[in-house]
Each structure stands twice: as structure tokens, then as C-alpha cells.
Amino acid sequence: MMWFFFFFFLLSLLVLLTQKESVLMILLCFELMFLVIFMGLVWSGFMHGSFHSVIVVSAFAVAEAAVGLSLLVSLVHVNGNEGVSLVVEIL
């Protein structure tokens, strides 16, 4: 299971290194990297039975995702249709 997290971490790092002109892509890659890191920490917390660390990591992941989402929304708002078309193109 850890290979799965490692694969997505490397994939997001590769996309992050190749996308230098698009700020939205860079933010999306950072969100993907942090999501993979948090999911790996939650998985290891469940495997070792430390449920308190799982709760702390989950709360931190929700806070980080909220900040990242607000940054993405503000960048789409500032960039207008170009930012919206880029996000739709990614999805």
C-alpha cells in the first residue's frame, strides 16, 4: 500500500517540476502531494494502532485542504475564464 502513496507522490512531483508557468497547476500538485503524505500517515497510524495520531493528522489535512482550496478559488477568481478553463481541462 505504501508503494501506492509513493507512486502518487512521485507523479505529483514530476508534474510540479514540469509546470512552471501555471500557478494553478503548481497549487494542484502541492495539494496532491500533501494529500498523499497525509493518507500515508493515516494509513501508518491505523496499522500501528495509534488512533490519536490519526485524528491529529486528519484535522491537519482538513485545515490544509481548506487553505489550498481557498487559494485555488481566489486564483480562479483573479484569472477569470483562463483559470476556469484550465481547471476544467485538468478534470
Automatic annotation (TrEMBL):
<feature type="transmembrane region" description="Helical">
    <location>
        <begin position="54"/>
        <end position="76"/>
    </location>
</feature>
<keyword id="KW-0496">Mitochondrion</keyword>
<protein>
    <recommendedName>
        <fullName>NADH-ubiquinone oxidoreductase chain 4L</fullName>
    </recommendedName>
</protein>
<feature type="signal peptide">
    <location>
        <begin position="1"/>
        <end position="20"/>
    </location>
</feature>
<keyword id="KW-1278">Translocase</keyword>
<dbReference type="InterPro" id="IPR039428">
    <property type="entry name" value="NUOK/Mnh_C1-like"/>
</dbReference>
<dbReference type="GO" id="GO:0016020">
    <property type="term" value="C:membrane"/>
</dbReference>
<keyword id="KW-0732">Signal</keyword>
<keyword id="KW-0472">Membrane</keyword>
<comment type="similarity">
    <text>Belongs to the complex I subunit 4L family.</text>
</comment>
<feature type="transmembrane region" description="Helical">
    <location>
        <begin position="30"/>
        <end position="47"/>
    </location>
</feature>
<keyword id="KW-1133">Transmembrane helix</keyword>
<keyword id="KW-0812">Transmembrane</keyword>
<dbReference type="Pfam" id="PF00420">
    <property type="entry name" value="Oxidored_q2"/>
</dbReference>
<keyword id="KW-0520">NAD</keyword>
